[in-house]
Every structure is written in C-alpha cells, then in structure tokens.
C-alpha cells in the first residue's frame, strides 16, 4: 500500500506556508471563482514552494469550452508550465453531460508527459461509472476530483464509497473533494482511496478570506496517514 496524497487548494503565495508546513503533497491553484489565474500569480506561488503545483484551466463558469477558448487554454498551460507549474487541472463535458473526451484528449495531447487531474465536472455527468471509463484511456490523468454529487459529499459520499470499493480504477484515481469531513476519510481509505483534496477545510472558519492554516492541514495529514496505517493492518 502506497502513501496517501494530500492536495490543498491555494489562491496566492500567502497560502503556501500553511499548506507546506502542514504536510501537503501537492497544491492546486485557481482563482477564488475556480478559474484560471494569471501566469504571474502562478510564478509567484511556484517560487514559494518545491511542492508540485497544478493549475486550473477554466475560462468560463460552465463545464464547456469553445474553439477559441481551447486555443487560449493550451497557451495558458504552456505559460503555467514555463512559470514552474508541475501540471494542470481541467474537466469538460459535452452537450449530453458526458465527459468531453475530444476536448480533454486534445488538451492532454497538447501537453505530452504533463500530469493533470479531472475536476468536479464529473459530478454533473449522468453516470459516474461510465464517466470514469471514458477518462481511463486519456494520457497523463493522475486523479479525478469528485464528491459523487453536484451538491457535495454530504449527498454523494455513499455512492463514491461503493464505486471505489467495487472498481480498482475508481479507487486508484478518485480524489474526494467537495465539503469532505473527517468522519468520511477512514471509510474512503478502506474502499481503496489514497488521495484527498482540501479547500475550505484548510482555512480557519472555512473562510476563503482566511489563509491556509498549517495546523488544520496537519490534522488532515495525520488523519489520512493513520487511516492508511489502520487499513494496512486490517489487510495484513
């Protein structure tokens, strides 16, 4: 059993110390609205840390994109990588609310060898299991951030646990995110999950106006590590 991975959402360089000191393994950078940041901000965050930084590729508040935007997204991704980012995060759906494999495949193909994660768009698809299968053959995918429902893990948790427990592909790539609570972690780990995403949970009061707090991140780090150790003992 490999170690767990803890990803923490950051908004600017001032969030980096708390995430890093708390034990994060990877950072996800976006604007507060979940959009693509300016390359200068990416550069500023990357200068503050040696942790891998993934940057969101998204230019509008839907899960679709246009041809013109797609060209711009490729250019932004290249700028981000040139500024020190280790990878990107994106997720697009087609008009039938299926994973848009054409768009996602194009982006992945334009960034050969670059790791990327698929974002919460998957929660708006009609069939989560089918969506995972549509993603399976895309190169470079390292995680799928999902809450199992557009309304968050409070609603989608049970389905996610069942999916992970019954499908090694889901367990291997699932990164629960979307109002994750501590009580859910041991059960997700028992189902095979090895990655977690933190956003507001890493900030005092759950406020985006507060900076990432090292103590809060550390509590999730310890919880993940303890859950993995316990699962390993049980399996052994």
Summarize the SSE layout with pairings:
Elements: E1 5-10, H1 16-22, E2 26-29, H2 39-47, E3 53-56, H3 67-82, E4 87-90, H4 101-110, E5 116-118, H5 128-135, E6 141-146, H6 153-166, H7 168-173, E7 174-176, H8 185-190, E8 195-198, H9 214-235
Parallel strand pairs: 1-2, 1-8, 2-3, 3-4, 4-5, 5-6, 6-7
Helix pairs in contact: 1-9
CATH structural architecture: Alpha-Beta Barrel
By CATH's scheme, which homologous superfamily applies? Copper homeostasis (CutC) domain
Can you tell me the residue ranges where pLDDT is under 50 for at least 5 consecutive residues?
none
Rg over CA atoms:
17 Å
Our measurement of the CA-to-CA distance between the termini, rounded to an integer number of angstroms, reads 10 Å
Along the chain, the helix and strand elements come as EHEHEHEHEHEHHEHEH
What is the C-level CATH assignment?
Alpha Beta
Q: Reading side by side through the largest sheet, how are the strands ordered?
A: 7-6-5-4-3-2-1-8
Largest sheet: 8 strands, parallel
User: Which fold name fills CATH's third level, the topology?
Assistant: TIM Barrel
Percent of residues in beta strands: 5-15%
Number of strands: 8
Approximate helicity band: 40-55%
Q: Summarize model confidence as the mean pLDDT.
A: 95
What is the total number of structural domains? 1
The gross shape turns out to be: globular
């Amino acid at each position: 059993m490999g170690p767990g991975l803890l990803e923490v959402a950051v908004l600017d360089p001032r969030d980096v110390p708390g995430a890093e000191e708390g034990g994060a393994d990877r950072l996800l950078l976006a604007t507060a609205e979940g959009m693509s940041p300016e390359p200068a901000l990416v550069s500023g965050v990357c200068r503050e840390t040696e942790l891998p930084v993934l940057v969101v590729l998204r230019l509008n508040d839907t899960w679709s994109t246009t041809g013109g935007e797609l060209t711009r997204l490729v250019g932004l991704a290249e700028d981000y990588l040139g500024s020190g980012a280790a990878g990107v995060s994106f997720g697009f759906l087609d008009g039938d609310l299926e994973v848009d494999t054409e768009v996602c495949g194009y982006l992945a193909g334009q960034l050969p060898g670059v790791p990327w994660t698929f974002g919460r768009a998957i929660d708006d698809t009609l069939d989560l299991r089918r969506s995972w299968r549509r993603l399976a053959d895309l190169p470079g995918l390292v995680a799928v951030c999902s809450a199992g429902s557009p309304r968050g893990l409070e609603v989608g948790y049970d389905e996610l646990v069942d999916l992970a427990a019954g499908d090694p592909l889901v367990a291997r790539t699932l990164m629960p995110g979307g109002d994750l609570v501590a009580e859910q972690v041991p059960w997700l780990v028992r189902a095979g999950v090895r990655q977690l995403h933190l956003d507001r949970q890493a900030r005092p009061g759950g406020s985006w106006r507060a900076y990432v707090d090292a103590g809060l991140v550390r509590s999730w780090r310890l919880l993940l590590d303890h859950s993995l150790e316990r699962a390993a003992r049980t399996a052994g």
